[in-house]
Amino acid sequence: MALISLLSLLLVAATVYPSAHTTTVSAADIDSNRIKGGTPLSSGPYGLPLSSFLLQTFPSFANASYSITGYNTSLPSGQTTGTSSTLAGWELTVGVTPGISLSDAENEENGADRGRFITATTLRITPPGEVKGFDGKGWRVCLIVFTGGLSATDGTGGDCGGYLPSGCINQIQVNSVSSSDGQCQDLDSLPGACSGYFSGDGKGKAWEIVPVNGTTGDRGQMVFASGSNPGAERDEKVLEEAEKKVWPVVMTWTHFASGGEVHDSAGWMSCVRAPVKKGEEKSGAAAGGRARMGLLWFVVGVVFLVIVG
Predict the structure, then answer these.
(1) Torsional sign, CA 62, 269, 171, 190
(2) What DSSP string describes 101-134?
(3) What is the mean pLDDT of residues 97-124?
(4) Residues of the signal sequence (predicted)?
(5) Per-residue pLDDT at 35
(6) pLDDT value at 301 more than 90
(7) Coil, strand or helix: which one is 276?
(8) Are 171 and 194 a contacting pair, CB within 8 Å?
(9) Domain edges within the chain
(10) The pLDDT of residue 155
(11) What integer pLDDT is reported at residue 7 of this predicted model?
(12) Residue 85 pLDDT > 90, yes or no?
């Protein structure tokens, strides 16, 4: 089953996902070489081909899944208020994987980094079984990630109430709601109630996503990837920092009327982090990942020969 899931992930790299809308968002103050978002991801961090990145991050070394608020995105456009009732079962999974080799990096500017390694953090969304698909004319879903994370590094993650005051959470959710044209919007400034709680520049980067993937068994979708600064293969400090980082994530769900205008929109915020895997052999994760890559590429080749033969 693991190999079947992996092969499904590889198909993701070559799949084009339909959307009835086009979104243009600012890349200001974001290291687009290190951070990737949207569906499908254009590549892994630092120009890694998506197929290579998926192989090296499957499965993640440390991961945790959280329930998030979502809706039935198979509902068509129209006068029905799509966000009038939430649908349980949506999950947001954060994963951390060390020892990701940059040997396959394609970008010329990454030439000096091809002998080095990164620790990667990924976000993945999985829909509930009740959601039969994604109606691109009826919905737009935006992912907003505060890439600097939070100042706090403790807690169990999930509900932002353990990290942020309610006034901060509520205002961010209000600010995330789509405007009259339904476009995904960066959040370039924090509400006053959030002062002192965020790291980095405190800005939220937005991407339009299709949260339902028709090519994987669980229909899960990788929607975000971030890489650490390139360095040694076995950097325990970098791994620990990645495991402790709390990621504020906002999902904005916009439902359209039959004429194409916004009918209703809702934003919900989560604060997620991976578990710190104390006492486990972290340095062996990279070697294990490379071994899986060799085996899985062999399996892919065998499957290909069987299909064409």
Answers:
(1) positive
(2) E-TT---GGGGGGTT-EEEEEEEEEE--TT----
(3) 87
(4) 1-22
(5) 96
(6) no
(7) coil
(8) yes
(9) 2-308
(10) 77
(11) 47
(12) no
